[in-house]
Amino acid sequence: MLRTHTCGELTINDLNKEVTLTGWVQKSRDLGGMTFVDMRDRYGITQLTFNSDDNAELRAQARDLGREFVIKVTGKVIERSNKNLKMPTGEVEIKVSTMELLNSAKLPPFLIEDETDGGEDLRAKYRYLDLRRNPVRNNLVLRHKMAQEVRKYLDGLDFIEVETPVLIKSTPEGARDFVVPSRMNPGEFYALPQSPQTFKQLLMVSGFDRYFQIVKCFRDEDLRADRQPEFTQIDCEMAFIEQEDILNVFEGLIRTLFKNVKDVDLIDVPRMQYSDAMRLYGSDKPDTRFEMQFVELNDIVKGKDFPVFDNAELVIGINAKNCAEYTRKQLDELTDFIKRPQIGATGLIYLRHNSDGSLKSSVDKFYNEGELNKWSQMFDSKPGDLMLIMAGVKDKVRKQLSELRLEMGNRLGLRDKNVFAPLWVLDFPLLEWDEDTQRYHAMHHPFTSPKPEDIAMLDTNPGEVRANAYDMVINGTEIGGGSIRIHDRALQSLMFKHLGFSVDEAQKQFGFLLDAFEYGAPPHGGIAFGFDRLVSIFAGLDSIRDVIAFPKNNSGRDVMIDSPSTIAEEQLKELKISTTV
Amino acid sequence: MLRTHTCGELTINDLNKEVTLTGWVQKSRDLGGMTFVDMRDRYGITQLTFNSDDNAELRAQARDLGREFVIKVTGKVIERSNKNLKMPTGEVEIKVSTMELLNSAKLPPFLIEDETDGGEDLRAKYRYLDLRRNPVRNNLVLRHKMAQEVRKYLDGLDFIEVETPVLIKSTPEGARDFVVPSRMNPGEFYALPQSPQTFKQLLMVSGFDRYFQIVKCFRDEDLRADRQPEFTQIDCEMAFIEQEDILNVFEGLIRTLFKNVKDVDLIDVPRMQYSDAMRLYGSDKPDTRFEMQFVELNDIVKGKDFPVFDNAELVIGINAKNCAEYTRKQLDELTDFIKRPQIGATGLIYLRHNSDGSLKSSVDKFYNEGELNKWSQMFDSKPGDLMLIMAGVKDKVRKQLSELRLEMGNRLGLRDKNVFAPLWVLDFPLLEWDEDTQRYHAMHHPFTSPKPEDIAMLDTNPGEVRANAYDMVINGTEIGGGSIRIHDRALQSLMFKHLGFSVDEAQKQFGFLLDAFEYGAPPHGGIAFGFDRLVSIFAGLDSIRDVIAFPKNNSGRDVMIDSPSTIAEEQLKELKISTTV
Asked: What distance, in Å, lies between the first and last C-alpha atoms of chain B?
């Protein structure tokens, strides 16, 4: 190595050592006849000193160093007169005797500091400079640590990491597949996997028993807020197990990660039925860092000639503790919040439980004090509380109130990024109705097994059939999901039928899997975690983009390398395709 | 878990335990009133017994079990009367009390045994069944172990695994790029990486210092003998280092793998100049499990009126120890071998050092005993040795003799798969002349640095310029290669110029990297190992296909899932492309 030590390791214990360091000039300042340079590398910052009295020429060279110049210095570790005890290296400095300029640097387009002045676009274009900043680098170091811990945990439980192919087959369900023309097979295409689902199931048929893979997956879809066309999954599958085994093994994974990476002991990983999650939180991924559960009011509010409630399928509310003092303006803000197009509610009704014990609602016209007292009892409200109530069609109003609940959680500071509330959500519906195509789709995927006792409803009441499917949620974010799979050809064929596949289509697309089920397929199931998302939660970040080394923007572009781009005519010709733009 | 134990763990120490096992019926046989079933899972085989006297019905069910049926049994561990000490579980059997059929199986299309009767095509189609066979499964378990060891070693040295993007940019050099049309950016394409080269260099510019990644790479090329369109690299890069540091760190990696995975202590990892490798072995990846180095004879054979030698640029030979007794037929076989079109030599000359000490050559007409004695001295031959000599144009004849040397190594049993001879080959040429395009190409890649003392020759004698480039070779196979990179914009631009890029082309394709070099790029270098190849060497296999879970065939097809395949017109339309087949 060009260096004897890194910029993060020298302390008072190294006094008088002759050392060689390499790194970048973070900043420098002159003071009398001296120049002080903060030199940075991945491991930390060390102060260098250059003194005109000792070596005027060297000191002059030091004065010429610009930000981000790359240098190699040799010198002696000495005690600092002006110690900085906030830094590990803050008690020492290097009295430099020789210096070599390894590379110069133009002035960076933004500050390479924890708080930078660079906008998002500029930082994306110069991602290699943004990655020099501590917060960004730390995210990737965290990601590395988490990946290592995942592998250690699963390897310790006899899981085998198997690489599944990236060049696979497009499916008719795969409207969001990226495809890859094959030069050797003109007119034909590979697809990039949205997940290694069928391959991991085949590995179970092969007897691999416990598989995992930290693997890139791909989805060519409109990139809403926080999606990336390529993303990383911790993909897992087990054979000869029941749902309980999966929940235990992967609860253990999450516990281990929190313990070993963040030194957080997860007290409890509660379990909740999907139906309860929807009823109590209006969401299949409730943020359980705070309570504020929904209270259903249909039974006590209907029949009092208030049309908004009388005409509603569902009247529900939440109790915002200690918010009774909310001003008119604050209440208007909340009403505006739920009326925003992406939420789309029409109105908000409130009930104040005043500090003097009196109750005051926005619908006093229709409800007397006795009735409001019943409301208060339902909410278990105390003086000082504010009840926020909405009404409408069941599915919609639950979603709307869920948004309001999260907003109130934010306003009340109940969503602390350093608090972690994991949760299993169980027993998802097998199918969900799609208005666009007017048919049922698999809520998880077509390989998910229905609960045996619900199979009979497939013909009569498909929407009510529950699946052996489960999600892991942390702080209101789904970080993983999975299911016990079908391992029986007849049941799998039945599922395909209900999903609108003809027998021929099913055979053409998934014949290899259906066939495999006939050669001795064991019971099996699995789970996949969104690794980007998991890392971002551990990092306390809202966006996955910050935990990806070279992310793409909302248009799927990498602005640093300027990709995607046009390709040469010659290349298109060889691939036997043409563009029709 | 459905089971209490695996099929590989019960021994004489578990006698009388009540256990539950799951697995596949490997085979069964009847003996008197009993049925014996070998049940298999990933961990081993355990014998089950069913006795008519105990439970006639259960025994009848056992008789009905076919090969590969999936079962769950409960019973007691008892001592076997007929022990099989070759198996870990061979001293016990399970006296089954209850059995559940988890899944039946059709008769597999080939035997699921170590030695199978299935041909390659059939096994490829039913890869999920082929993966049940021990040798195939063991390869993937080995692969998993090796990946874990690689990560452990590099993590221990502060390397960080960073995921680089899979959807990148096509380059004009990238004739072998797989491309991916972008739905969001019609008419534009991503490319799949042939390696993460530029990204890992940017990570060095970012200060990541020590990077690695076990990563899929892609190359759309004609699939010779043992290539796959997607393959896996151990990709590594370090900053603030010199070549010596890379050689030490990665020699350490290989040593650690051999020690921890195969319990082999590598004695020595010798280093050889590229020029010496070519001179002594006619190959840049010599198999050094055996000596048999080339001997150059120009000085002593020319000028004796033997036109084959007189007209040759180079006359070289090898000493095949103890082969003097080779018959005429055996010598003819060797001559036929080197005359095969893929080798293309025209003839072979021999010199026998007979056991009585006399010398006999196939060109006695031109050379007298005194002259042959000189040959013998050059070869350091002993009675019993056979010298094989070829003549021709330097580069060609070296390649030809290299093939013959390997063939002799095979014939003499000198290429034992359980012996491992690693080797660093150093100082590769920077450029190689390409007859097709009539210009120089980068031998390694365009980012490789020339030796400083050779830079001046770039203009005058480009073919002689040496690079800071190195390969690791094991047993005649290149398993890794790398270089110290250019980290200076001017030198990188000069390289692009010599590779035939215009300034505009270079900026358009690699502007981000050239720009990055101006913002403080540290000296850096790296290496990439072919992970598939490395695993296959550890497994003692000739083909990488056997260490890949779901490989593609020579036409780039996955015959199991039938991919690539045509895609729907609708999909093409959305992607704004059409096929021109």
From this structure: 52
Query: Where residue A324 sits, what CATH number does that domain have?
Result: 3.30.1360.30
The shortest C-alpha distance from B194 to chain A (Å) reads: 13
Residues B324 and B399 in one domain: yes
What's the structural domain count of chain A?
3
Residues A38 and A94 in one domain: yes
B409 lies in the same domain as B345: yes
What number is the ipTM of this complex? 0.95
How does DSSP classify residue B464? G
Which of A69, A535, A577 to mutate to test binding with chain B, by most B CBs within 10 Å of its CB?
A: A577
Q: Is A570 among the domain residues? A: no
In-domain check, residue B128: no
- CA-to-CA dists, residue A226 to A231, A423, B164, angstroms: 11, 22, 18
Determine the structural domain holding residue A306 and report its residue range.
290-415
In terms of domains, do A431 and A463 share one? yes
This model's pTM is above 0.90: yes
The answer to whether residues B212 and B253 touch, using CB atoms and an 8 Å cutoff, is: no
Q: Could you give the CA distance from residue A232 to residue A296 in angstroms, rounded to a whole number?
A: 39
> Given an 8 Å threshold on Cβ–Cβ distance, is B519 in contact with A104?
no
CATH number of the domain encompassing residue A16:
2.40.50.140
Query: Does the distance separating the beta carbons of B162 and A207 come in below 8 Å?
Result: no
Restricting to B residues 526-565, those with a Cβ less than 8 Å away from any Cβ of A are 548-550, 552, 555-558, 560-565
Q: Are residues B266 and B323 in the same domain?
A: no
Cβ neighbours for B42, distance < 8 A, ≥ 6 positions apart: A207, A208, A209, B6, B8, B137
B223/A184 CB distance under 8 A: yes
CB atoms within 10 A of CB B331: 17
Searching chain A, which residue's CA lies closest to the CA of residue B220?
Answer: A183
Kindly state whether A575 is in contact with chain B, defined as any CB-CB distance less than 8 angstroms.
yes
**CB of B113 within 8 Å of any CB in chain A?**
no
Indicate which of A41, A73, A260, A567 best probes the interface with B, i.e. most B CBs within 10 Å of its own CB.
A567
Q: Answer yes or no: do A42 and B208 touch at CB < 8 A.
A: yes
A377 a known binding residue?
Answer: no
**Pairing verdict, β B524-530 and A44-51:** unpaired
Q: What is the DSSP annotation of A406-472? A: HHHHHHTT---TT---EEEEE--BSEEEETTTTEEEESS-TTBPBPGGGTTHHHH-GGG-BBSEEEE
> Does residue B367 share a domain with residue B317?
yes
Question: For each of chain B's 581 residues, which pLDDT tens digit applies?
Answer: 899 999 999 999 999 999 999 999 999 999 999 999 999 999 999 999 999 999 999 999 999 999 999 999 999 999 999 999 999 999 999 999 999 999 999 999 999 999 999 999 999 999 999 999 999 999 999 999 999 999 999 999 999 999 999 999 987 666 789 999 999 999 999 999 999 999 999 999 999 999 999 999 999 987 776 889 999 999 999 999 999 999 999 999 999 999 999 999 998 899 999 999 999 999 999 999 999 999 999 999 999 999 999 999 999 999 999 999 999 999 999 999 999 999 999 999 999 999 999 999 999 999 999 999 999 999 999 999 999 999 999 999 999 999 999 999 999 999 999 999 999 999 999 999 888 888 888 998 999 999 999 999 998 999 999 999 999 999 999 999 999 999 999 999 999 999 888 999 899 889 999 999 999 999 999 999 999 999 999 999 999 999 999 999 999 999 999 999 999 888 999 999 999 98
| In a shared domain, residues A297 and A217 | no
Nearest to B151 among A68, A151, A522 (CB): A151
Q: Is residue A124 part of a domain?
A: no
Same domain, B156 and B201: yes
In a domain, B115, yes or no: no
